[in-house]
Amino acid sequence: MPIEKGFPHINSKEQLLEELMCSLGDQVLYTALSYVKNYQVAEDIAQEVFVKVYQKLDEFRGESSIKTWVIRITINHSKDYLRSWYYRKTLLSNKIGLFAKGTEETPEFEYILKEESDALTKGLFSLPLKFREVLFLYFYEELTLKEISEVLNQNISTTKSRFYKAKDLLNKIYEEREKLVWK
Questions:
Q1: What is the tens place of the pLDDT at every residue in 10-42?
Q2: To 10 degrees, the CA torsion angle through 136, 141, 146, 149?
Q3: How buried is 181 (Cβ within 10 angstroms: 0-12 exposed, 13-18 middle, 19+ buried)?
Q4: pLDDT in tens, 66-113
Q5: φ, ψ for residue 14 (rounded to 5)?
Q6: CB 35 within 8 Å of CB 85
Q7: What DSSP assignment string belongs to 22-34?
Q8: Burial class (CB in 10 A: 0-12, 13-18, 19+), 140
Q9: From CA 179, how far away is CA 182, in angstroms rounded?
Q10: Which residues contact 36 (CB under 8 A, 6 or more apart)?
Q11: Tell me: the pLDDT tens digits for 131-140?
């Protein structure tokens, strides 16, 4: 599928990239953030995603929307980061440092929690990744369950199951917080 079909006013790859960065930049950033839980790393991943999008734009086949394609690239880059040796080494160093300090949260994580005091965001970040990603893509990226199953490369029934399980888990988190608040 030619890219021009979806963007008739675009004359070059550079213009298309600029258009995608403007229209999807925040979504790419917050998708990466939902995985890596570190704003600076999420910014780096977002930059890498748009470099990859530019490099692979000619290979876009149009089997999904361009938004779905870009979000899929973002998820893949985020998961690659989480599997990387650098991340594992950093995570281990942080755990050792936290154990020595006697605290449970890194300064970066505390900053994110302060900046995003919204209870939904906190609850979402506390969910396991396989549930968090489905809710994030549904509520924040406004993808349908079918689009989410395409982005995550999984069966639609798996996506639906994880979506409903994630909502249940989130409800339980809120119920527990309510109990603590009223004690």
A1: 678 888 889 999 999 999 999 999 888 888 889
A2: -50
A3: exposed
A4: 999 999 999 999 988 887 765 555 544 444 344 444 445 566 666 555
A5: -65, -40
A6: no
A7: HHHHHHHHHHHHH
A8: middle
A9: 5
A10: 42, 45, 78, 81, 82, 87
A11: 988 988 887 7
String of b and e for 14-51 (b: at least 16 CB within 10 Å)?
eebbeebbeebeebbbbbbbbbbbbbebbeebbebbbe
Return the pLDDT at 179.
59
DSSP 8-state class, residue 158? H
Q: For the whole model, what pTM was predicted?
A: 0.56
Are the C-beta atoms of 46 and 28 separated by less than 8 Å?
yes
Per-residue burial over 66-94, b if 16 or more Cβ lie within 10 Å, else e, is bbbbbbbbbbebbeebeeeeeeeeeeeee
The structure tokens 């349908």 sit at: 144
Return d(Cα 168, Cα 99) in angstroms, integer: 32
Cα dihedral 83/86/91/92 (nearest 10): 110
In sequence order, the 6+-apart residues with CB closer than 8 A to the CB of 175 are: none
Give yes or no for a contact between 148 and 137, defined as CB atoms under 8 angstroms apart: yes
